Amino acid sequence: MKHKTFSFLHSAAYACCGLAMILSCGQKTTTETAFTMKSDSIVADIDMGHFAISMDYPADTTSALAKAMTEYASEMLGGTYQGTYDSPRSLMAYYHTRIINEWRPDFELYREASSTNPSLFWNTRIEKIAETPRFLTIGFTSETYQGGAHGLCLNYGVTFRKDDCRRIGWEILRNNKGENMQKLIRQGLREYFNVASDDDLRPMLFEEEYLYSAPLPQCPPLFIDQGVRFIYNQYEIAPYAAGSPSFVIPYDKLKDEFTVTGQRLCGITE
Length: 270
Prior knowledge:
The protein is α+β, with helices and mostly antiparallel strands. It has helices at residues 4-19, 64-76, 88-113, 179-193, 198-201, 251-254, 260-266; strands at 37-46, 49-58, 120-131, 135-145, 152-161, 222-223, 227-231, 246-250.
């Protein structure tokens, strides 16, 4: 069974996460109050299997931040939606239908070659995971199964600066290869793998060099209440069985690693 759709999503996700761009919002959003959020979903249990998408978004879908979130969701899902960004429901319906139509030919081939009907799975969630007066952080998770030995899961997300809708990327760190930053990443990975020493961590990783010169995750930094969440996806630095290594580094430990942009975003400095 081919995995062309997963690769499609994976490539789109990598492209989005590397941009760290400033959106042209056209208006300022209020930074002193929380957004009223709504949730919507589309679910279909059909002959092919289970296909679902859900999304959190500001109730005022015409706001600059709401449109920025919908645009981000579209890019993560492939970037082919040509509708307006003030209708999250329309976007979800478009990609939900597109995925089913794209998977149908492979499903038919799989069914012809198999004595049993395969049950495919596509479940995508775009949800709010943190919000402060300065930022809003959205998580993007897509779980897929298109046949074969196992399914796959993408874990991404983005932090928006509220006052101008900027997407925050790893440029908020001054030196990710510095000794202290690498020490913090190593400590986080030890916590994820529940090991006590660097020697115990070494066999968990694809490359020994990752122990003292770990790359930053493809997923951008996710600002949450406690600190910055780091998420490495499946196969990024460790085998499939490791899942998605993730951990949170508290803001106070990152203070000297942040640029002024990062310090202001988390409230360390005004």
